[in-house]
Amino acid sequence: MIEFREKYDVCVIGAGHAGCEAALSCARLGLETVIFTVSVDSIAMMPCNPHIGGSSKGHLVREIDALGGEMGKNIDKTFLQSKMLNVSKGPAVHSLRCQADKAEYSRSMRIILEHQDHLTIKQAEVTEILTESQDGKNIVTGVKIFTGGIYESKAVILCTGTYLKARCLCGEAITYTGPNGLQPSNYLSQALLNIGVELRRFKTGTPARMDKRSIDFTKMEEQFGDPVVIPFSYETDSSTVQIEQKSCWLTYTNESTHEIIRNNLDRSPIYAGVIEGTGPRYCPSIEDKVVKFADKLRHQVFIEPESKYTNEMYVDGMSSSLPEDVQLAMYRTVPGLEKCKIVRNAYAIEYDCINANQLQLTLEFRDIAGLFSAGQFNGSSGYEEAAAQGLIAGINASMKILGKNQLILDRSQAYIGVLIDDLVTKDNKEPYRMMTSRAEYRLLLRQDNADLRLREIGYQVGLISKDQVDKLLEKKSRIEKEIKRLKNTVVGASEVVQKFLLSKNSNQLRTGTSLADLICRPELSYELISKIDTERKPLPKSVVEQINISIKYEGYIERQIRQVDQFKKMEKRKISELIDYNDVKSLRIEAKQKLILHKPSSIGQASRISGVSPADISVLMIYLEQYNKERKQGDESVSEK
User: Which of 149, 208, 464, 528 could anchor a disulfide with 4, C-beta 3.0 to 4.6 Å?
Assistant: First the structure.
């Protein structure tokens, strides 16, 4: 029998949002890459919600773009509506969100992959991860597909999403399929178990899709996009995204809806005990909402377009696994949906995924060299979380092969750093969702300054061009020079100044003050004081935005920078891989078990492990001081000999 073999640098398994970013980053860094998908037509598919971004998720998309990823550019080309969320609050929680044309988003990303040098697309089911033992450690050597073909590689990135042993549930009806009826991956789970990968079972769900012609929008509240669209990508010309936008619609459930759900809970796979996997806490089904929030008289329901070229409308807020007859009765109690026709039933989907505690912060498995993992397979939820992990896994697989330093973003640098640290360090019992509240330094990690934080790192990695980083440095310089000028420019209590302040309901001056101090006033801004700033020169909006935020929030920003300095000190206190935690006296048994399991690289990471208390950290720090002292003395003794 003739054996089919090919050689690549990297094999990426799965072509969802994680797989696309992983494969593109590897290929763009010059590595020969092959990406496997169960269907070429499902590249960058959006099987659930039709939008990119949203609260905290918009931050991730901006960071992906700043590092050289593709998601932001692609949604800028394919959105139907754009809206900045949380604008009534501070800049730390402002988040961009775009309704996507799902078909166009997928088609556009496929074109990008097909035209990327060093990247090969292969429709095939991967059934085995090939490894060999070297010096007592498993090392990845490639993958095997269902037809028997072998693809040798130096690294493999798992981006399998929700496909492993997937099954979809709609009431009593169970189909063994992946999302949208696509073929599941039935063999890879056992192959991973065979090489020592620990698996768990999670579940998620999606709402029904309605025929637009059967919906009465006059009974709903129309939701418009922003009059001026702000693009996701720093490379997108803002003039190209000022399009005619599609509307979304808001309606609500009611007591009739809830009564139907309560009367049929015994037919829900969730409450009948049929579903084995754990679902997402922060994206519950409508059954969960009715049961867990019994005091709520209604729940929001958004009706959203899925594409310019289809009448399918997404019923956001009403995911379900109830039977088809119950779904129809339930939906038809909602104002505007009384005569609705379901195009696709809502369903829950169960799938195999990993406990991400098995991974290093680079997203490489601790015990299997060259095997990386990203996306929903790591126990996260959401397109944006997946894409962020895919980008980092792709970068680090490439850096490892190229013999360069791998990229680890810490919690003070990026939401991506928070995401990965939480996945790898914390014990996540349910699908993980990014939220602004998870980022303790969120005033520094705003979506508006993602380029200032990360673009130079993208350049060092090799995914950002010299021209792009030069533009960034020019932007930084303009911001710094203008802030310095504003702090050094003093205005007095002249008639012009006093009249201006009076017109803005701002306290008049008794003595001279700097323009920067005036900007700090809540009722004033950089733009508003232009009338009394005679030396001002025109600046781009992106520069003006940073000047405003930097001056208005200077005290808070400085306080958070001091907090980051303390955080960095803890992160710099490295822990040797050679430490045997069983030797650390006074360390609680639970702490020993967790530290042995997680193998933290620093005191900072150790302090974030669930089950490791501040007292345990104090004990560990004392032990490390003595341990490092003894090692240093031992090294000096050897050198003297």
Answer: 149
